[in-house]
Specification:
Conserved hypothetical protein from pyrococcus furiosus pfu- 392566-001, ParB domain; alpha/beta; five-stranded mixed β-sheet; 7 strands; elongated
Length: about 280
């Protein structure tokens, strides 16, 4: 795994956005926009929202004020942070863009891209989950370490990654923001993808709030647990009837989560001896 020494110096060493004193910011150079290529570890997939349209209009009027962070790649440069600005500059017809060149490893490039998007709230929940998953699986970063680096609780990261377990239709809805991450986490309480999709349709059709969704799913689980309990009681009742018929006396069967018991009733010493003799012969 690549060493993370550069990040130990702080994000300001890599991203001038985070340097407070403008006099300490390194200088940039101008680069032909065609020399840049997207970050292969880019978390963000959707660049066609209204915010992007506003950015295109701003760049068309004012140009790019903030440099794009890049690293050398073949005969050009790979974007580390600022892909949204690069795409907007292309759409605005800008030919040259300001860049800052950094020498960083793959894991640093992936992490910086993720942090930039998170701090600017650019990612939807699935994109964020995929980014966390990539950093953990591809670069071996633990949830605890990732929590420190992106400034989020470990439980928040774990719950976000769990969203990747949803069926594709639910993930698509989350990407398109027809449901929220809160809705999606509620769906994970259901056991099967079929049920999750069924409740997804109910959420969308009725425009349920997250609280209403949680209540609806909990009611379904309570109803199912009650039905299973009734079914189990019926099964035990059948067993009691069978044993009572075989032994010619009352039998009571009870069952807990981990243990149970069978009670064989008798009223007289003669009945007791008969039962002992019968059970001993089994």
């Amino acid at each position: 795994m690549p060493q993370k020494g550069s990040l130990g110096k702080g994000l300001g060493a890599l991203l001038p956005d985070f340097i407070d004193d403008i006099s300490t910011r390194p200088s940039f150079i101008l680069c032909g926009i065609e020399e840049l290529s997207p970050n292969r570890f880019q978390s963000r997939k959707d660049f066609n929202d209204n915010e992007q349209k506003r950015l295109i209009a701003s760049i068309r009027k004012n140009g790019i004020i903030q440099p794009i962070i890049v690293r050398k790649s073949g005969h050009g440069y790979e974007i580390i942070a600022g892909e949204r600005r690069w795409r907007a500059a292309q759409a605005a017809g800008i030919k040259d863009v300001p860049i800052l060149i950094r020498d960083v490893e793959d894991s640093d490039a992936a992490e910086m891209s993720l942090i930039e998007n998170i701090q600017r709230a650019d990612l939807n929940a699935i994109e964020e989950a995929e980014a966390y998953s990539m950093l953990m699986e591809k670069f071996g970063i633990s949830q605890e370490e990732l929590s420190t680096r992106v400034g989020k609780d470990r439980s928040t990261i774990a719950n976000t990654v769990r969203l990747l377990k949803l069926p594709q239709e639910a993930k698509h809805a989350l990407r398109n923001k027809t449901i929220t991450a809160g809705h999606a986490r509620s769906l994970l309480a259901l056991d099967s993808p079929g049920e999750q999709i069924q409740f997804l349709h109910v959420i969308q059709k009725k425009a349920l709030s997250v609280r209403d969704t949680e209540r609806l799913i909990q009611n379904r689980k309570n109803t199912r647990a009650k039905a299973e309990s009734i079914k189990k009681d019926t099964s035990l009742l059948d067993l009691e009837n069978l044993l009572s018929t075989r032994l010619l006396t009352a039998v009571h069967v009870s069952q807990g989560k981990k243990s149970g018991k069978i009670e064989i009733r008798f009223k007289t010493a003669e009945e007791f001896n008969r039962l002992v003799t019968l059970l001993a012969s089994i």
